[in-house]
Structure formats: C-alpha cells, structure tokens
Amino acid sequence: MDKNVLTEIRKSVNSFVGQEVMVKANRGRRKVLEKEGILEKTHPNIFVIKIDENHQIRRLSYSYADLLTDNVELKVKGENIKIGIV
Questions:
Q1: Is the pTM of this model over 0.90?
Q2: Beta-carbon neighbour count of residue 41 at 10 Å?
Q3: H helix runs in the chain, sequence order
Q4: How many CB atoms lie within 10 A of CB 31?
C-alpha cells in the first residue's frame, strides 16, 4: 500500500514538470524555506526544483516521501493546486 501512495505522488509530480511552482519546506526548529522555481525534472526517488535568485541558479531536491509526510508542500504558482497527496 505504501508503495502505491508513493507511486501516485510520483505520477502527480511528474505531470507538472516544466511548470512554475512554489515550495514550502520545513527545515526544523521553526525554520521554513519558501521559494519559487521551476519543477525541472523527476527521478525515481527525488524531484528537482530549479530556483533563480539574483541571477544565481540553485537546485533543490526533495524526496516524494517529503511530500507524503508534509515536510515539503508543493503548489503550482498562480493557482491553488497542491501537488502530491491531496
């Protein structure tokens, strides 16, 4: 059952590759990272978000389990569509 949930999350994330997204990641100790970027690519265990800050490109990677456990929240920019588990 757990693998089915992660497979559904992976499919959901994969359908939004190339779109602008907003990421909200819990970094622990009341630290929350909020960034906007492009969902660049997906891999079997992680997905990558490309962020352009002040003409400096960074890439953040998260696992699908982060979406499942609500450590990371991923939304389509400009819309109220939450990517991953609903």
A1: no
A2: 15
A3: 2-14, 64-68
A4: 8
pLDDT single digits (tens) 19-59: 999 999 998 888 999 999 999 999 999 999 999 998 999 99
Within 8 A by CB and 6+ apart from 48, the residues are 39, 40, 41, 42, 59, 60, 61
For the chain, list the domains and their CATH numbers.
2-78 (2.30.30.100)
Residue partners of 77: CB distance under 8 A and separation at least 6: 19, 20, 21, 22, 36
CA-CA distance, 9 to 1, in Å (whole number)? Answer: 13
Residues 12 and 47: their CA atoms lie apart, in Å, by 11
